[in-house]
Amino acid sequence: MVNPIVIIGITLASAFFIGILQAYAKVWARVIFILTLVFDLLASGIVFYGFLSGELARPISVKIGGFPPPIGINLLVGKAEAAMAVLIFSVAFLGAIHWFVKGLPQPEGKAMVLFLLLSLGATGITFTGDFFNLFVFIEITSIAAYGLVASSRTKGALEAAFKYMVVGSISSTFILLGVVFLYKATGSLNMMDIAGKLLGGISSAVLALITLLILSGLLVELEVFPINGWALDVYQGADPVVVALLAGAAVKAFYLVFLKTAGFLPLSSFFSLALIFGGSTYLAGQFFAWRQRDVRRLFGYSSVAQLGLLILAAGFFLNSALASQSRLMIGAAIVLLIFNHSFAKTSLFLLADNVKGSNVEDWAGTLRGNPLFAFSFTSSVFSIAGIPPMAGFWAKVLLIFAIPRQYSWAVALILIGALAEVVYYFHLYRVASQGEGKEAGGNLFSPFVSSLLLVVSVPMVWGIFSRKLSIPLNGQVLLLLGISLGIYLLGFSRPLQWLGSLATLGYGIYVLLPHFKPDLSGFFLALVLFGGGALLIATYPGSKKLPSTFYPAYLVVVFSMAGVVLSSTWLSLFVFWEVMTWSSFLLINMGEGKKAAWLYAIFSAAGAYAMLGGIYLLPSLRIGVGKVPGLLPAVLISLAFLVKMATAPLHIWARDAYGESAHQFTPLLSGIMSKMGVFGTALVVVYILGVSSNPVFRYFLGWLGVLTAFFMTLLAVFQDDLKKLLAYSSVAQVGYILLGVALGTPLGWSASLYHTVNHFFFKALLFVAAAGIIYRVGTSYLPQMGGLIRRMPLTFFATLLAIISLAGIPPLSGFAGKWLLYSALIEKGWIFITVVAFLASTLAFLYCFKILHSVFLGQLQEENFNVKEVPLTVALVEVLLLLPLIILGAFPRLLLDPIDKVLSSLPGLSPAPIHYGRVMGAVTKLGHWNALFLMVFFAGSFLIALVFFAITSARIRKVGQLDVGYSGEVPRSAEDLHFGYGLYEHFRKAVGWLIYPLVTKVWKGIYEGINALAEMGRRIYTGDVNTYAAYVIALSIIILYIFSGVK
Amino acid sequence: MRKWLALAFLILLGFFLAKITSAFPFGVESWGVSKHYVDKGIEENRGSNLVTSIVVNYRGFDTLGEVTVLFLAATALAFLLATCRCRRRYERWEASLIVKAASETLYPLLILFGAYIFIHGHLTPGGGFQGGTVIASAVMLMLLAHFTFHPNHKALSTLEGLAGMSFVLIGFAGLIWGGSFLANNIIPLGQWNRLFSAGVIPLIYVAVGFKVGFELSGLITDMMKTIKEE
Amino acid sequence: MAFFVASILLILIGLYAVLVKRNIMKIVIGLSLMDTGVNVLIISLGFIRGRTAPIVNVKDLLVNTSSKVVDPLPQALVLTAIVIGVAVTAVALSIVMLMYSKKNTLEIDEYKELKW
Amino acid sequence: MWSKIFYAFLTLLGGIAYGLLLGGISRKITARMQNRRGPTVWQNFIDLWKLFRKKTAVSHGVMFYLAPMFRLVGGAGTFLLVPIVIDSPYLSNFSFGGDLIVIMYFMVLGCLGMALGAAESGHPHAPIGVTRGLSQMAGYELPFVISVVVLMIADKTATVEGIVRAQQGGILHWHLFTHPFAAAAAFISLLGMMTSYPFQVVLAPQEIAVGPPTEYSSTFLSYMFSGRSVFAMAKYLLFMDLFLGGAGSLLEAFAKTFLVFLWPLFITNVFPRFRLEQSVRFFWTWPTFIGLVDLLRISLMR
């Protein structure tokens, strides 16, 4: 067991010793410096371990000078303090290593002393049990920080240091005054002693004022809005190593003191103070960062925001009116937040040190070809943004679910801020991952280690909290996710990765076999696993260009979808949902359109956080348990699913995300991932809304679905990029599915579930074919193709059948969905929706023809003369997906019968009211349809006609492609003859006003509006030290005035 | 405008400060924890100067921090100014003969006086900080008077570091033999009102005195010497 | 009472300089003044009318000391506070020196590059 | 069953013949209105035979080859799915194969085949014509769908037989009179469907021979023609069933389809040609509004 005083004593002694040594033996000074940090780290680790192992049950009080407190000063070290010391010294150690590699500022001996004393000061702040001693340590920390901030001696650094010094001095003056007054008022300086005297709460106005004086001093150090201008300047101007130490360690120590002070001086208005200042700081930080072009200042805003969140949490943590269970949860959240933010920010700031230039644009391409950099950056950003599986996710969840219902506005605030955070962090991510690969500095040890800590902590954190919050995560799925990540190790060879992935997927199917039951989960699970497997086969071509992270991410998407459908609670669904979202984000980001991935990130995050808010409002976390009051939870939860389905007006991410994601991934995105939205909406309709209640909302959903179908179809008609066209088409089709789900009748659901599967078949087929075509032709721009039927007959045939199915023309499989849907609509009597649905499906013919014509028909362009048929794996998958289109066309019951079983397993639903006869085929109350007959009739008469034709026809003379009767002229080139550009220009003249990009403009307007507000808001940071000081004074006056009212 | 706004802020702040202080009537007895120091101070520490007892023993940890702060300031200053290309705004005039001669005379006396102050810190007003300051003022006097006066910087910082370390070591000695860090029971406390009394208090104060003296001297030297002549 | 008023006034005057003065040196002086004000306030808080300094160098003081001396604790605290004030001022001055060496001016308007 | 197929085949031949005849009649009438003599009403038969007997046929590829079969089978399928005489064991043909929804979608198959073949020919006019046709279809589909939905909702059935049965019991029970607005909308959209004036820009017969499939000739074109005429018949039959009360006998069917056939013919010869965007706009405004009247009525009455 180590006495905590030893940590302080040894550090001090070696600081003095380094002061001597630097003049004689520089190397030894360095050795002592590192050894001291190592010793401190170990010692504090031992103390912390003592608490963890239960050897130390209660906080230890170390008396100094031989007198018990309150006569002498004591150290008060509990679990939190020990952990904080570990944190401080680990960050210090990492920073020191980074410093050594990078080169210490000169004279280095003194720099090391300052560095050591800064970490010592922070530790002292944490450990001390005496208010005046606290002040002394605050000053040690501050003075060391002033010196270190100025250490790079640039203009910015000096300016920042000066501002820091002025504001810091005012703050410490407040603290000193408060401490002295406190002594006068209570006759003691010892924290525990005073706390004992104030046990019943602060009752006198004077004591309240004194407490507020101390608190407002601490709030300055905690970088509260609007008195945090100095902090931002420091983050921007100072040496990143110093900033890492300040943001990662010192400020956290101040936070701990803030907590302790507020705990020992129990002020009744503290709760509202923390909520107001925490909340405003959090929001201001997150939104002002939007306009920030300097990366370090951006990180600064983010740090400020995180501190705001911590202060907010402190309010709840210290509110004794809350249940102790929730307070414990919030405590855990605070610990996680601190841990998470400290290491992530350390990593980020040290990474920033490796990038030349300070602007966001200077980061362009830094992630490319720098795997260590990319790993550190990605894991840090994911941590801060609170994306599972990182620890930051748990912090957010614990915090939110511990907040009682009457403060749900605080939950909303937290979620909105989290969304704003995604916006600017992923903007940076987008910039960093695009463009030409760029050399970044190689000083990556420390950022790598600190982000590695974040990653390594994941299993532990999950182990602790998923049980505590009773989030049962499917163990098999977790295992599969783990194996998927392991595929990365095969990164040296793409074929091996491909094979490994196939094997993993096969194993996954084997493992999850018991879950293939005739219920909703089993239905979607089959779609996910078999569909994902089939599409995986086609990823093989072009794999040279794929990054080695492709296959792991692909598998993670597939298995997290399995996790989503197998979830039994909303929260575990949310977890897998997030994993799916963000791994797919990585995949979309691998394509060409980085802005697409950014938009996807924003909309997905908005949906996900809305869903989290909705889950928060639910009475029970288990799916299908408890009566849900009101419509709000349902609306919020379904937002996430609507985003994934890209339902208008949440669709604007979809075009580019589908169009510009990695070609090998798009089939999965469209064919299966968008169906997760269907799954989710289905859950909402069945378990939250109820299939027969809330008709108005479901009618609204129906309109959303049909309008999506209509407008996306219209947009597809005018789209000239193959993948983007398919993207719009995909979104439109999912709109139909949503419509069916919204109907809430067995027939409607039958239509939706049928179309879900069938849409997978034909749309995946189309996207796979598109991938093959683009791979061969080298472009996805439709007017540059044409005539490819001569080179890719198989792909043409496959595409033709897929298109017939897509258009819903009998006798192929697509018609069943249409027939069921219209039957359901007419049965339900949603007349106007029916009309629009019909019209939309007519419009679909326009783009269907466009695809076929522009790619395969017309004139083969000269540059495509040497194009070959798509690669073998793609062709194989095409055939695989083609067969069900034909088989289901003849025997739709192969799919409809399982769907009936699924429907009978759902509350409120029953098998679709379809009677099957031998002659009439499928018969409903409304109409009938004999699929097999149509197929046989069509195929039979087609064959007869063909044979008859072959016998009777004239001698066939095959002619070259240019040989057409073109007004008597001899056409010169295929390009002249091909009608490729502006295929529906005349139609655009008629209906162009319908596709005015209103939604895009509205979203853009919202974005610009927030930006303008943020710009206005951040102007308060004038950079003028007088102004900053005035803010401090003004704010302290306000605090003293408002919160001193003692009840 | 700015001025009036500032005044308004300050008046409000002053109002709150006044409101707090008005709760503590001026010059009226109100003992807190320091009643123990006053009543038991002599018995426990044998130091006549109760303030010193508090500073060095009861709240010795504060003083260690204080020494650290000073050390920190000196280090930070030396660190920052080491690479400063600071220039003087005005030409510097050499001091007159009288000043030179007088300062040379006062220099040893001042150092002696400083030493006296910190050696008697536990008996009389004053102590390590005060004595150290007096010593530093002697150095400053010489620096001002003589262009050619160069204190040995290396020696200064070495001694200063040693003094600081000895403070910490005394603290550790207390921890090892006396049961707690900076405990004042490792050497006999001695008689009241004697030079050799009060246990480790004079030892610490001597260390502090040296430290502060060397520290401030170094600090002043750094500030003056980094300014380059034109 | 006058001590209280004077010390608070000192604090406010120092703060006024920090809030209003556009010269860096004046701001540093303001901070110093503020420190002094706080120190005076601390000392005067420990004062008890009619008592002597807490130095027990005569026999008479040995008994019933607490009724004869002023509160020594504020004095001890102020000692620390003074030293800290000095340290802050020293660092502040060195920063100011560096700033001046960079830009050859002490006007605060020249030091507003970091903002927003 | 085999007899059913046999009768269906006979009906099909009859349908083709009647369709060709109607085409001839329309050419004759048009010519007379333009003070021309015009071809004989049998001209279409002659053309067909001539094409069928040609010695060589030019082919541009597989899809080009298959398209006429598509066209013929699509047209024939649609024709056979619409019951000619209700409750007749043979003349209701294959109407058991599907209801109105099935028919509406099956109709597209033939057009799709034709479009693909035409497009593969590599002639730029082909895709121009096809895209025009599709756009126009998007235009007229709206009023047509409105009226179809009105009927389906009103009769609570989606089968053609059901709709026909709902109109039995006198001329005033015809949907033409019970739902005049829906019927009006549908009949206006029929003009578009038949690509007759003023909606003829799709075929552009003055500029291009035979419209989009302009590259087709000889046997190929004969199949196309047969497909086209039987397809036209299918539409006439459908309109008869939907609005004119269906047919109780073959004769009634002849008469009523002839009535339906006359309607576009009258319009054709008095109007100039719309540009494409004009026709789409037209369909999405006037007939749509007219149809909406009945749609609103239905939705309020429900």
How many DSSP H or I helices of chain C?
A: 4
Number of strands of chain C: 0
Helix tally of chain A equals: 39
Instruction: Provide the CATH top-level class of chain C.
Output: Mainly Alpha
Most extensive chain-chain interface: A-D, 79 and 82 residues
Query: Could you say which overall geometry of chain A the principal axes of the C-alpha atoms support?
Result: elongated
Average pLDDT of chain A, rounded to a whole number, is 90
* Classification by helices and strands of chain C: mainly alpha
Largest sheet of chain A: 3 strands, antiparallel
Helix content of chain A: over 70%
Radius of gyration of chain C: 20 Å
**How many structural units, i.e. domains of chain C?**
1
Task: Supply the helix-strand structural class of chain A.
Answer: mainly alpha
Number of strands of chain A: 6
The biggest beta sheet of chain C reads:
none
The oligomeric status of these chains comes to: heterotetramer
N→C terminal distance of chain C: 44 Å
- The percent range for strand residues of chain C is under 5%
Going across the biggest sheet of chain A, name each strand in turn: 3-4-5
Unreliable stretches covering 5 or more consecutive residues of chain C = none
Features:
heterotetramer; C: mainly alpha; Helix Hairpins; D: 302 residues; mainly alpha; 11 helices; 70% helix
